[in-house]
Inverse folding.
């Protein structure tokens, strides 16, 4: 490899840096560093003029990598790393071949003016220089397929598909059901955000949404289909779609319905939540799209009646299932929600046919509300809110912890429809602590329902059982001090209340749809406790995108929501993927993990810890796909054989930095190293001086990829090199960009402390703290506290020759 | 047949298992004596130290040195042998990286003497007599070697050409070492200086249980005596700490085959900075069930805090060769 040629630009920030330290001295000393071909002190590097000069100076000096000494690459508002990368693009220097010595926020501004501050700045330049010498060019761009895979043909998936096809991109939609539109089609009256309860009907908007998709030649619609296999390959997704046999020829079928008329077999489809039947060959509903009759394989006996009767010979019962295999650049996971989440809660009485979920009641409203057990019109319907939800207070941790947020509004709508259309039927709504009718529409519904005189009872379900009179009995536990129902008809006695009902509607929780094809595992998504995939953090930067690059989780698959919000998410996700699709490639950043096959033993530990699903197991060993890697470095820290490492963040680069870090620290002063996570803790150290705080000069910081990117063996090596104290700073709890890097480091530090105690090395020497951007005072205090304790302790005894 | 080469075998701070392992080679011993004259092997043959001292520098071709260097006498032996030989082989885990005796580095001379000569209940030593490097008896001076504070590996005392790891080295490894000796005798190419007679890859590479790995976290660590391990599944997958991923392969997996996890006697693979701290980094990353966002801090850290005795678990055979290779004392001017 050719010797590096380093250009150094030292900015005095028009006196805001040179007021506190001797930039002329820095310039003089920087010129003495190995491989430096150019050094210049500049007044204000970020100015238009200096940027022009920079281009010219790089050209003339032949520098192939640049060292900037100036403001922080993390928090500078004028010269942050995004700006540097964009600038380098124009100069011909590779975007990875730069380092920044932060001599402003973490030096000139943070310390009192004087020689110690200059000495620290010089160390910072030497550290950046040590790292820069070993920098490598960024990996080549990765080609990204501009075809999208939408899993789930609900309103969210349809929205994403329409947008992408609208800009000329191909999309495959894989829907397990027989029609497009998902739950939108099951809910006859839809909410809208205006102050109207539900004036828009799904039989109207459903086909509009779905037809736009079916008619678009760029969109492949695969109903009754599933993803049998999906894996990441070379930056893309390789998927195998298994499509049901095409028994009915779409071109020939006129949807006349003759086949269903003669079909002797009845079938249950998810459309009616299993409450009503259809024929084995049928359409689930008249406005279903695609407008083709379909056969439900598990109910069809292949008797051949339909084949015989079909006037257009559209039916071929010998059709076989087909397999499609293709490469996609993005996956939209719109698999929706599971509403039947009350099976495992015996106290809710769901085993009785007259106890139904809210989704089932939607279908009953459509067909005319009758008791499923005997077909009679119910005289008293009881709605139960939070059925199995919000299980954190009195429900002893059973059930679903979250609020599904839509159920209160939906229940108000359903209660109102009963009250308006079924004059003889009494309605009671049982609620748990409170009613959550959020946003613009639902509260007015609640208001209307109250004015209609519908009874509300606050309580927690004790049991729903069969009553002696043949109906249902609801037993409630009292909550708070409310002793009677809204109208006073029902009163709690000794904390209990009993009421009878003919029918009960459970506003059950929305949970992620069941995942029989293990898509979550196959895509290596991380999920929360309820099973919803976790979004990329922080959520405002890449909305709807999961922790896995270009896997977008949309609609109710990402959490409870109403149809309108699901559609909005579909559109948002499509917009997010467009830059990749329009360029057809992904530009690789400076850092990426690489696994050396010569040392990898396929122990799969890297795969276990990778939060971004970038590592996969192959017969040739573990392989990291750089297009999915977000360079958190978990793999490097966890790899037992050091086969995994981060490009441009190697162990050697870190140790080289440590080696030169403390030249300017006075003898006797503790040498404190702060390993600060890329986003939070490093920014906190910057924010300290931005907010006017001062700190001691004897610490040096290294901006690490994540608090969890540094192997503890490296920390041990730093102690061996004579560092007196090490602070590892990570994001605050629930704030890690990689989900759990801060926690992993907390745990590793605990384990390291146990080892240090055994070794006789004071645990004061290694400290982990959760330091968020706004915790800059904590950062300064922590450094001061460490300094004091380390002074009391004396020099690090592990830094000496120990072979006595 | 060319002229035979000469060999010496030395026993320093070790249990004697390495010598037994050489004897266990059975008929393979004849392969050795075919090509080599053993000129020094105090434990098995009638040589005295004076015989060794009398030899010329460079007159021994190969030395197999087993055991740690704990005393000044062992260090002297090592230096004499180094001078007398052409190829120095650290034989066995103790001389290569410290072995079990190396765990004594959690203590020091003062503590060891105090416990051994005063504190143990069976000791009767009212005058507090302790070993001295020299003492006068009836006008004569009697000397003893100095007992060091710290157990050292062979390469911390003299240059080492090759390492034969294992506690003790398995017959297969010894056979490979004999191969090296034979190559030397015939003047053939030798492995690069500093090489270890083990696999460049970790034990998992050759472990028959490796295929059962699924890439799961370890919710709770289980110690080997707490459970009868599944004989087919990866130990780590069962929550049992196994040093296989950190340890050079080549041993043949005897422990694994006997349903015991690897304890690390073949030493770290070549890329590791430190045998134990690396393991700590790995286990700190994968122990605990995940979902930390929903746990209290103490609850989250409990599974790693349940890992007992990090030195004994992670540095069982390698403590003297670790980055921090013994216990230290905090405090100014200590």
């Amino acid at each position: 490899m050719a010797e590096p040629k380093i250009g150094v630009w030292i900015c005095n920030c028009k006196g805001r840096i040179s007021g506190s330290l001797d930039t002329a001295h820095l310039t003089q000393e920087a010129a003495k560093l190995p491989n430096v071909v150019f050094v210049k002190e500049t007044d204000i590097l970020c100015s238009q003029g200096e940027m022009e000069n920079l281009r010219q100076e790089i050209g003339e000096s032949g520098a192939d990598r640049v060292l900037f000494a100036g403001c922080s690459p993390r928090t500078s508002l004028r010269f942050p790393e995004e700006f540097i990368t964009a600038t380098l693009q124009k100069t011909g220097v590779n975007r990875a071949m730069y380092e920044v010595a932060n001599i402003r926020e973490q030096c000139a501004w943070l310390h009192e003016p004087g020689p110690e501050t200059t000495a620290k700045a010089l160390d910072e330049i030497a550290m950046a220089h040590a790292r820069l010498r070993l920098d490598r060019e960024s990996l080549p761009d990765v080609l990204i397929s501009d075809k999208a895979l939408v899993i789930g043909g609900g309103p969210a998936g349809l929205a994403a598909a329409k947008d992408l096809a609208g800009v000329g991109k191909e999309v495959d939609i894989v829907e397990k059901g027989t029609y497009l539109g998902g739950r939108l089609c099951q809910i006859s009256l839809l909410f809208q955000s205006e102050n109207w309860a539900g004036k828009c009907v799904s039989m109207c908007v459903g086909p509009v949404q779905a037809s736009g998709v079916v008619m678009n030649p760029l969109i492949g619609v695969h109903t009754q289909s599933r993803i049998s296999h999906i894996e990441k390959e070379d930056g893309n997704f390789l998927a195998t779609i298994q499509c049901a046999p095409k028994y009915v020829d779409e071109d020939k079928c006129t949807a006349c319905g003759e086949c269903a008329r003669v079909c002797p077999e009845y079938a249950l489809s998810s459309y009616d939540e299993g409450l009503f039947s259809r024929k084995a060959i049928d359409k689930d509903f008249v406005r279903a799209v695609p407008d083709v009759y379909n056969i439900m394989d598990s109910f069809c006996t292949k008797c051949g009646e339909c084949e015989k009767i079909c006037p257009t010979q559209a039916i071929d019962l010998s059709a076989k299932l087909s397999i499609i295999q293709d490469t996609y650049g993005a996956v939209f996971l719109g698999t929706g929600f599971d509403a039947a989440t009350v099976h495992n809660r015996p106290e809710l009485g769901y085993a009785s046919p007259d106890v139904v979920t809210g989704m089932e009641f939607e279908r009953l409203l459509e067909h005319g509300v009758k008791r499923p057990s005997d077909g009679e019109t119910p005289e008293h319907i009881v709605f139960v809110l939070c059925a199995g939800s919000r299980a954190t207070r009195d429900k002893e941790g059973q059930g679903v912890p979250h609020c599904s947020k839509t159920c209160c509004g939906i229940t108000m709508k359903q209660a109102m429809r009963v009250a308006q259309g079924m004059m003889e039927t009494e309605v009671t709504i049982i609620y748990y602590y409170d009613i959550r009718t959020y946003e613009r529409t639902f509260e007015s519904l609640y208001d209307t329902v109250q004015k209609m005189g519908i009874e509300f009872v606050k309580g927690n379900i004790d049991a729903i059982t069969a009553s002696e009179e043949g109906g249902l009995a609801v037993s409630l536990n009292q909550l708070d001090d409310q002793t009677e129902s809204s109208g006073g008809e029902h009163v709690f006695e000794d904390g209990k209340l009993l009421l009878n009902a003919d029918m009960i509607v459970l506003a059950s929780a929305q949970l992620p749809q069941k995942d029989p094809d293990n898509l979550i595992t196959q895509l290596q998504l991380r999920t929360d406790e309820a099973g919803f995939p976790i979004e990329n953090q922080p959520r405002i930067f890449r909305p709807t995108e999961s922790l896995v690059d270009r896997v977008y989780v949309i609609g109710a698959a990402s959490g409870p929501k109403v149809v309108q919000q699901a559609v909005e998410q579909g559109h948002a996700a499509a917009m997010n993927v467009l830059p990749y699709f329009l360029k057809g490639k992904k530009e690789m950043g400076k850092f990426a993990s690489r696994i050396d096959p010569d040392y990898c033993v396929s122990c799969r530990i890297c795969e276990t810890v990778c939060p971004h699903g970038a590592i996969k197991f192959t017969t040739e060993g573990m392989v990291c796909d750089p297009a999915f890697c977000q360079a958190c470095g978990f793999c490097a820290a966890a790899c037992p054989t050091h086969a995994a490492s981060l490009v441009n963040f190697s162990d050697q680069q870190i140790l080289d930095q440590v080696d030169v870090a403390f030249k300017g620290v006075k003898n006797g002063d503790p040498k404190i190293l702060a390993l600060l996570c890329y986003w939070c803790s490093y920014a906190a150290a910057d924010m300290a001086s931005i907010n006017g705080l001062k700190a001691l000069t004897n610490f040096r910081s290294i901006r690490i990829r994540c608090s969890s990117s540094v192997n503890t063996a490296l920390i041990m090596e730093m102690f061996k090199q004579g560092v007196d104290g090490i602070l590892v700073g990570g994001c605050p709890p629930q704030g890690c960009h990689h989900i759990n890097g801060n926690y992993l480091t907390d745990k590793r530090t605990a384990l390291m402390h146990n080892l240090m105690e055994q070794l006789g090395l004071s645990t004061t020497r290694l400290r982990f703290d959760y330091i968020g951007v706004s915790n800059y005072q904590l950062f300064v205090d922590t450094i001061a506290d460490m300094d004091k304790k380390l002074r009391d302790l004396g020099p690090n005894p592990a830094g000496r020759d120990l072979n006595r | 047949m060319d002229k035979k080469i000469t060999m010496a075998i030395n026993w320093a701070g070790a249990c004697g298992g390495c010598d037994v392992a050489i004897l266990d080679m059975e008929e393979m011993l004849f392969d050795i004596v075919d090509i080599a004259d053993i000129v020094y092997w105090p434990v098995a043959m009638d040589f005295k130290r004076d015989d060794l001292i009398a030899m010329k520098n460079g007159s021994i071709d190969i030395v197999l040195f087993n055991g740690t260097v704990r005393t000044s006498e062992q260090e002297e032996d090592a230096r004499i042998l180094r001078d007398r030989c052409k190829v120095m082989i650290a034989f066995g885990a103790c001389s290569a990286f410290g072995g079990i005796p190396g765990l004594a580095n959690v203590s020091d001379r003062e503590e060891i003497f105090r416990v051994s000569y005063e504190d143990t209940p069976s000791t009767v030593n009212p005058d507090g007599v302790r070993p001295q490097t020299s003492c006068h008896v009836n006008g004569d001076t009697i000397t003893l070697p100095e007992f060091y504070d710290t157990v050292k590996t062979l390469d911390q005392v003299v240059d080492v050409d090759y390492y034969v790891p294992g506690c003790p080295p398995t017959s297969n490894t010894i056979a490979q070492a004999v191969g090296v000796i034979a190559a030397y005798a015939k003047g053939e190419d030798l492995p690069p200086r500093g090489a270890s007679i083990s696999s460049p890859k970790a034990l998992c590479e050759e472990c028959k249980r490796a295929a059962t790995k699924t890439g799961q976290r370890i919710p709770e660590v289980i110690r080997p005596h707490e459970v009868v391990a599944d004989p087919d599944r990866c130990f780590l997958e069962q929550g049992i700490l196994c040093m296989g991923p950190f340890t050079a392969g080549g041993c043949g997996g005897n422990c694994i085959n006997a349903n015991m996890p690897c304890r690390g006697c073949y030493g770290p693979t070549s890329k590791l900075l430190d045998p134990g701290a690396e393991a700590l980094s790995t286990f700190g990353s994968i122990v605990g069930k995940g979902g930390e966002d929903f746990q209290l801090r103490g609850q989250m850290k409990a599974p790693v805090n349940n890992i007992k005795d990090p030195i004994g678990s992670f540095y069982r055979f390698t403590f003297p060769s670790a980055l921090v290779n013994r216990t230290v004392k905090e405090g100014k001017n200590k």
Observations:
- Chain A touches chain B through 60 residues (CB under 8 Å).
- The mean pLDDT of chain A is 94.
